């Protein structure tokens, strides 16, 4: 029976880790639909209160700045013209109450004259998440255009660390 | 020992939920390869008998109508010219014997003159699945082009619900 | 108590399978970031010593040939100009100490004049992996351009087998 109790204890840890990975995946896969729906409140719920979203163009500090970005131009213009914010499959590393997620993102914008979409941006992404009161939230997202610059490559080179 | 038995019972539920999410993921990731292989029977096996595939252009009702679409023009023409049906990482919410999966899809078509592919469609997707005799099957897929229309945005806004 | 011990034994198998799927996913999602970072050593660690990477253009035999590809032209030129190697969600089938993973891949290259990226290649992929000394490694990757050819379609048609 001690053996069984020990096995159960080890299973609890292993299942918790699988659930944490799945929960981080749930957060990251909720982002694209929310941002393309233009649902600023749903986007905001994915980020920690004092989260930082650090892009090529500007740094947004705090959940309010991030939801403001969703609510305003140029983001709302992209939606009105037709756009998609997509990720590719995410490399997720969980370590206790923190996690690092690395992937590419795509920003596709509709080109009505060509009856197709233009791949406007292909970007390297690093998400840092934390478990906050039982829920996984994004604390920092760093995103850099894959234009050959060292900074985008360095971001991808740190996957899992 | 009662404690251990209780822990095991809770683990069973938690592992079942993780397995259900993985099984839904298996169904959705089998779709693209099957449809680009032009394998109508493999596509058909992913859908419930009375499934509905509701697109911008037309509504297919029943597994037979969906496999017929795979077997015929224009789908077979797209394959012959070179095409890829891709998803981005899927947000999956399981609730007992039903599940909702939300993601984007891409339809890429080869442009031989440009030695590249054209992003023909970027689409909002909502899949509703059910456990049927122990297997997860697609009961309804609703897909709308991300062209700025309210219906595509509303579809993404319902992710997880 | 026998019942509990039996349940625990079955849970161990089920959790192991979920962990194996997650571990294969970890390997495949580490590939794109490593290859776009130009980190040949990180790419090499994902492949078995005698791995084969079989593409439309050439067949690389052995981990050294694969890391050499990352370190040299034209790969390093693509990185310097701006590129992204992306997958779409991967269909993973684990069978004991081997696994098959099927998905699409995209190779996107920056077009500075158009302020956008060109979808240069959309490719059918089959990865065969094995557990080697406790770690999942890629033993063979077969990749064929989705240009309408039978070989690419056949590759996708074998998903999960």
UniProtKB/TrEMBL annotation, chains A, B, C:
It comes from the Bacteria. Residues 18-142 form the SnoaL-like domain. It comes from Nocardia speluncae. This is Nuclear transport factor 2 family protein. Pfam families: SnoaL_4 (PF13577).
């Amino acid at each position: 029976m001690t053996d069984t109790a020990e096995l159960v204890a080890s299973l609890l840890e292993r299942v918790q880790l699988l659930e944490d990975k799945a929960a981080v995946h749930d957060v990251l896969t909720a982002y694209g639909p929310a941002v393309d729906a233009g649902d600023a409140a749903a986007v905001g719920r994915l980020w920690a209160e004092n989260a930082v979203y650090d892009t090529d163009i500007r740094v947004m500090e705090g959940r309010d700045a991030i939801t403001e970005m969703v609510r305003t131009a140029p983001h709302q213009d992209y939606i009105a013209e037709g756009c998609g914010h997509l990720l590719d499959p995410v490399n997720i590393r969980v370590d206790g109450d923190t996690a690092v997620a690395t992937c590419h993102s795509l920003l596709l914008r509709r080109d009505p004259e060509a009856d197709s979409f233009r791949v406007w941006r292909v970007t390297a992404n690093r998400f840092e998440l934390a478990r906050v009161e039982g829920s996984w939230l994004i604390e920092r997202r760093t995103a850099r255009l894959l234009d050959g610059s060292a900074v985008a490559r360095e971001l991808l080179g740190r996957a899992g660390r």
